[in-house]
Amino acid sequence: MELVQASDKIYLEMYTAILMISNERLSQFFGKEITVADREFVESGCAQMIEESKTQKVSFLVVGDPFCATTHTDLYLRCMEAGVKVNVVHNASIVSAMGCCGLQVYRFGEIVSIPFFT
To answer: Which residues on adjacent β-strands are paired with residue 10?
Structure first.
């Protein structure tokens, strides 16, 4: 929470999982404006966010596990290539350990998700 509140910019990726609270309410909680990062932004348009990270404190919030989706691993690698220091705060999941070791969750074995239907 302190890392997010200390951020100059906050992005929220919530297309890989469902967040059970509105973006507006989350913004109120942190006392900061939060920009929603859709799939296109994360996969193709995140160069701006990476550039901002060179001079500002930027948080990229993920609903769920940060290294479960290959998209997030790709973003992490792009940051490393650009010389941007990344601080990952893991969710309480063994899945993070697999992602941090460089293993792709999709190839590790079968994982069962319990989906929310809205």
So the answer is: 59
